[in-house]
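Researcher: I've been going back and forth with a colleague about how GH36 C-terminal domain-containing protein might be arranged in three dimensions. Neither of us has a model we trust, so I'd like an independent prediction. The organism is Paenibacillus hexagrammi, in case that matters for your notes. Sequence below.
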Amino acid sequence: MIVAEDKTEAIAFYFRVLAEPNPPLTWLRLKGLDPAADYEIDGIVYPGDHLLYAGLPVSGLHGDFQSKVWLLRKIESSSNWES
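Model: Here is an independent structure prediction for GH36 C-terminal domain-containing protein. You can compare it with whatever you and your colleague have in mind.
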């Protein structure tokens, strides 16, 4: 995983060499993110603390020698609420 210094962007990689039959769901815990921020991954918004402590589910890999790459972008919170 590579995280920008300002924690606005990150890229995470997952590599699997050999598959196993009927594996449990794998969670990839990410590091270096802002726990108070939200991050968008593939159009889905995840809380930063969720990615740090629970992780990102790794699914959709079938067979040996598979990999997955995620690009994370920090979502700026809009504090311009009208009264």
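Researcher: What would you highlight for our discussion?
Model: I'd start with this: The chain is about 5% helix and 40% strand. After that, consider the following. Residues 2-75 form a domain with the Immunoglobulin-like fold (CATH 2.60.40.1180).
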